[in-house]
Design brief:
This protein is of the alpha/beta class. It folds into two domains: 218 residues, Rossmann fold (3-Layer(aba) Sandwich); 100 residues, Helicase, Ruva Protein, domain 3 (Orthogonal Bundle). The protein is built from 14 helices and 13 strands. A five-stranded parallel β-sheet has the order 3-6-9-1-10. It has a two-stranded parallel sheet with strand order 2-11. It has a two-stranded antiparallel sheet with strand order 4-5.
Length: 331
């Protein structure tokens, strides 16, 4: 009888790898913050999602800098950037690509769509129909596009940074549950403080801040950093803590749809990136707790009673965090 050799876990990042990661992340954050003023926490979350190999959803009212942040992140990486302006008449083939008949070769030739890039900026994603939104499902999960029974791999690294307006805004469609579940995290920009808004007027009032924004890293380094983040150690107790949080969302009466197993995986991956940025080769419960709301809240669906009572999904996440026991040190 043959036995499958046991696969050893990857070694945790060394000091040199950690310092390289922190330095690169610092350059990225500083570059983005030269455009997005006063949103340090939002920028840090965007960098965490990038290094965790995930996709980011930016949700807020118009005019607070969602598209600016997504374009600043894309331009900070020396790779291919594609932008998709989601509109009600956008077709799935505009996103993924299509096969076109070539009369010279008398064969069908695949013409790649806008999704073929390292960083894909999806502007106002919830203004397109659910059919078009679903064109991103395979792209985001499997990093490939299938057209006419042929699969085409996407570039590596690949990240979707999408913006959306709240559903109360005119001309919006709700994102399908499967689509929301593929975004590692959702963050809201929020209005800037009075000081940050005044600084924005002084620095950006007379010119486009993106015009002079130069890349501070390249796709190879980003891919290497993503691989480094995956080696950050997660103790079994920390894994159980993440599992307990997502399981708690599936049993509460305030929700009719809790967090998926993919949400648990995304939560741990994001926690690894957060730990690495804090120069730690291991994940703490604080990393899980800090990322629980941006990683879990957008996947949850409230029960009718909770909607009537005025609950928000983020409120449920905070309630779950208060109820689930935090692992003790050394366990």
């Amino acid at each position: 009888m043959t036995t499958t050799p046991r696969r050893e876990p990857p070694a945790p990042p060394g000091a040199d790898q950690t310092e390289e990661l922190v330095a690169a992340a610092g350059r990225l954050a500083a570059n983005i913050e030269s455009v997005i003023v006063g949103k340090t926490d939002v920028v840090r979350t965007a960098v965490v999602v990038l290094l965790a190999g995930g996709h980011l959803l930016l949700e807020d009212v118009p005019g607070v800098g969602k598209t600016m942040l997504s374009k600043a992140l894309a331009r900070s990486i020396d790779g291919s950037m594609r932008r998709i302006q989601f509109t009600p008449d956008l077709l799935p083939s505009d996103v993924t690509g299509t096969s076109v008949w070539d009369p010279e070769s008398r064969t069908f030739e695949f013409r790649p769509g806008a999704v073929f890039g390292n960083v894909v900026v999806g502007d106002e994603i919830n203004r397109a129909s659910p059919k078009t939104q679903s064109a991103l499902l395979e792209c985001m999960e499997e990093r490939q596009v299938t057209v006419d029974s042929t699969s085409y791999p996407l570039e590596d690294p690949f990240m979707v940074v999408a913006t959306q307006n709240p559903l109360e805004m005119e001309g919006t469609y709700p994102l399908p549950e499967a689509q929301r579940d593929r975004f590692m995290a959702r963050v809201s920009m929020g209005y800037p403080s009075a000081e940050a808004e005044a600084a924005m007027l002084r620095e950006h009032g007379g010119a486009d801040p993106l015009a002079d924004l130069a890349p501070v890293t390249d796709v190879k380094q980003v891919a290497d950093l993503v691989a480094t983040v995956r080696t950050v150690h997660v103790a079994p107790a920390i894994e159980q803590y993440a599992v307990a949080l997502t399981h708690a969302t599936r049993s509460t009466s305030r929700l009719r749809l809790g967090a998926s197993p993919r949400a648990t995986l995304h939560l741990v991956r994001a926690a690894r990136a957060r730990a690495a940025l804090d120069r730690r080769p291991y994940v703490l419960p604080d990393d899980i707790a800090a990322l629980a709301e941006p990683v879990l809240a957008h996947r949850l669906l409230l029960s009718p009673d909770a909607v009537v009572a005025g609950w928000q999904a983020s409120d449920v996440v905070r309630e779950v965090l208060a109820e689930v026991r935090v692992p003790e040190p050394g366990r």
